[in-house]
Hints:
- By secondary structure, this protein is mainly beta.
- It is built from one helix and 19 strands.
- The strands form five sheets. The chain has a four-stranded antiparallel β-sheet, with no helix packed on it. A four-stranded antiparallel β-sheet has the order 8-9-10-11, with no helix packed on it.
- Mean pLDDT is 84; it is low at 5-28.
Amino acid sequence: MLLVVRTPRVNRPWRLVAAGGVALLLSIAPLTAFAQRSGLAFERMAQERGLSNGTVTAIAQGKTGLLWFGTEDGLNLYDGSGFTLYRPIPGDTTSLADGWVTGLLVTRDGARWVGTLRGGLNRYLPRTQTFRRYQSIPGDSTSISSNQVNAMYEAPDGALWVGTSRGIDRFDPATGRVRRFQPVPDDSSALGNDVLAIEGDANGKLWVSARLGLFVFDPGRGSFE
């Protein structure tokens, strides 16, 4: 479910809150109190309004101002009045590869990237309203390391760093080629290299959170500290 907080003067979204189940109760209480004091009002955007699924996993805003919402059952584009839904279409390799969206990223050039649970990395192509898939290919080390994409980060040089269940990948958007790196190369538990989030710092290093801890990666050296 989505909640849109609107100001009393301007009829446009002010803050978006993705919530579901118990998380709804935890996140809405402070905002409700704030809204009562400031005259704000909540507008509920749920499945009866066209949202594909009640669990919203990711939110991003495109260069044109349109809002993208990833859910556990499809990708939703909201134009202020209604939703356009994107789901996998059997046999159509230009459709979204997997309906369970794990992350959304709009890069500085306006490109829209979609991470999925089982379908790898997808790029939305607005001219044709289709998707280009970048998936893990067995035996090809220049493809992404896993089709479970958990995190995405755009580096200052334009490269995408993609966190998967098997490490981090430096992805070149121009060529689609990948270099793979693992926080725990010798880990056999399948947990140490399950990357959950990536963020860069002022020194150009990447902070990588995984199921077995926090790691610092130096892209210049191509190694973890």
